[in-house]
Predict the structure.
Amino acid sequence: MDFSRAVAALRAALADSSRAQAAPDLLEQVLGLIRPSIGLAVPARSRNGAPAGPVAGWYGGLPGLPDGVPWPDHQGRPMTLLAQLDCAALAPLLGPEWMLPGSGTLLFFSDEWFHADFGADPGDDGCAVLHVPAGMPDRTAPPEATVIPALPLVAAAVLAAPDYAEPELAAVFSADAIRVMGLVAEIRDRLPTVRHRLLGWPDSPVTGPAGRRPLLALEAEQGTAWGELVGVSFWIDGSDLAAGRFSRVRRYLDVA
């Protein structure tokens, strides 16, 4: 992705917007908060049953864990693998904007029973994100583990815009809420809709754990039963993201 060119194209597309014309300073402020991200989706199948497009990861499945790395658990119960992402396949999509390891696989685990303690903020510790070498053989699931049938994921680079409720827009929102809501909604409507998103901003108007930014947001797919939950997202501290540390990632549950 040529991030600067993509933002410039979005700015040009908004030239006919009455909201943008009425608030050029606000427009530039929101555009300055645009982030690169990767949209992930389960692809349509070709005639021979193969995914229609290069596979950049998997929703569910079994993890490739190196010897000596235990299957993550929460209070003795094995977590569920929600997603596994191929860093080498994804990194070229964002080029210099890529903020994650350039190789290996990222594994996203979640407490299937949602019993983790939320504590004082919206996040909880019922998750684990592991960065492991690529090509590891699949680990057999331990007893009691829920295994989601593996679904391939294809990826595309997309822009992501903040919601009007983000703290970065709090000052202008308090001054002119209607104008901010209208312009932000129009900008978000002009960007692609994705089912799952890596990096960027959250698609739902949620406020994640304090001091953290979205890492991966997932919606339920085939083989997943979340009841009233409509999404599970993983959040990371900015300094941890820059350093490639995933030991303090927290989870947020989006309830309908």
About this structure: The chain has one domain: 3-41+54-255. The chain has a mean pLDDT of 89.
